Amino acid sequence: MIWRLLVTGMERMDMGRKSKRKMERQKAKEEKMVLSESSSFLMKEDYAALRTNVAFSLPGEGGKCIVVTSSIQHEGKSTTALNLAASYAQVGKKVLLIDCDMRMPVIASRLHIKEDEEKKTGLSHLLIGECKESDAVRYVEKLDIYMITAGMIPADPTRLLSSSEMTILLDKMKKEYDVVVLDCPPVNIVVDACLLAGCVDGYLLVVQHGKSEKRAIASMISQIKRVNGNILGFVYTNAPVEDKKYGGYQYGYGRK
Predict the structure, then answer these.
(1) pLDDT tens digit sequence for 144-159
(2) Are 54 and 184 in contact (CB under 8 A)?
(3) Using a CB cutoff of 8 Å and minimum separation of 24, what contacts does 55-60 make?
(4) Beta strand extents in 38-178 (DSSP E only)
(5) Cα separation of 97 and 148, whole Å?
(6) Where are the alpha helices (DSSP H) in 189-251?
(7) What tens digit of pLDDT does each residue of 171-210 get?
(8) What is the pTM of this model?
(9) What is the Cα–Cα distance from 41 to 30, expressed in whole angstroms?
(10) What does each C-alpha distance from 237 to 52, 151, 241 come to in angstroms?
């Protein structure tokens, strides 16, 4: 038997209001997750601790290029990449954030960058020569960082990330910026993050409490080691209060 649902105009309006409220709540939640001057003391200290540990893991002069990735989706890698970049900016570093997740990019929407702008001047456009570097790099005033969005989703992101153009771009950016943070797709889903091992300084691996499985984490580590990637450590997200390393902060950091 086939049941048909008839929705009246009033019901449609009610559904629309509920959908709008849901979107507003989601937007407010995402904004709260982005590190800023108005963020809580604990959140600021948490990322300061992460920033300090990363700095000690990458001594020496010159710009540093850091990949932030995870084993699977939705473990907090994009939030970590964005907030790590913002944390560096808060101590006076010139920072570039690049959304290298050209499959499921989220950073542009998190920062409310207009879709029509983002889809003309992102990383994918830059790597194939459809826009200039000056068009692709934008300044995010509220976070005091520079960023390159992912752009239009290409047919073959892997080819673009493994191209000589990507290597040249990162080499140049490391000379122009103190810190370059790359938000890359999960290692166990696609090979994209591993392709950058030869032109980055290290990997931060995000694992989520209650979600990341030991087998998946082991596979992620194995794949990065296979390409001689430098694993800086782990960011432990969504930890319960009793497990948080820094007195109740939202994130913990651990060297491998």
Answers:
(1) 999 999 999 888 999 9
(2) no
(3) 57/202, 57/232, 57/233, 57/255, 58/201, 58/202, 58/232
(4) 64-70, 95-99, 138-140, 145-148
(5) 6
(6) 214-226
(7) 999 999 999 999 999 998 999 999 999 999 999 999 887 7
(8) 0.81
(9) 18
(10) 17, 27, 11
